């Protein structure tokens, strides 16, 4: 009977020499530390994003008109005599009105709805060639 065949030894099966083993341990430790730092940084970003999405709007940020209470959106806008509103637009708490004036010209009025007062008036002048 023949003896069972012995497996051949390869370079991967041999133990590393002590210097190579120290280098390998340092690399594994370095990789573990870097992965922990990377994980902590990613978690900090995720926590910041969640906090930012949950925090209420600050004073510097414009609140949407839908978020304002109904009584904050009521009031009067004083238009020049004989003016007609051609169009309007709203952005945040600002309302702009495009008017045709009684004298035949056009103007843009900008109102701050939170403060209930006009913040700008622009006369539209057409350039004649």
Explain this structure.
The chain is of the alpha+beta class and 129 residues long. It contains one helix and four strands. A four-stranded antiparallel β-sheet has the order 1-2-3-4, with no helix packed on it. Strand 2 (94-100) and strand 3 form a beta hairpin. The longest helix has 37 residues, at 18-54. It is rod-shaped. The model has no long low-confidence stretch (mean pLDDT 81). This is Fimbrial protein. Keywords: Membrane, Transmembrane, Transmembrane helix. The chain crosses the membrane at residues 32-51.
The structure class reads alpha+beta
Strand count, sense and barrel status of the largest sheet are: 4 strands, antiparallel
User: How many angstroms separate the termini?
Assistant: 114 Å
Instruction: Give the DSSP E fraction (strand runs of 2 or more residues).
Output: 15-25%
Percent helix, as a range, is 25-40%
Give unreliable regions as ranges.
none
Number of strands: 4
Q: How do the helices and strands follow one another from N- to C-terminus?
A: HEEEE
| H/I helix tally | 1
- Kindly state the mean pLDDT as a whole number? 81
Protein name: Fimbrial protein
Transmembrane segments: 32-51
Keywords: Membrane, Transmembrane, Transmembrane helix
Organism: Chelativorans intermedius
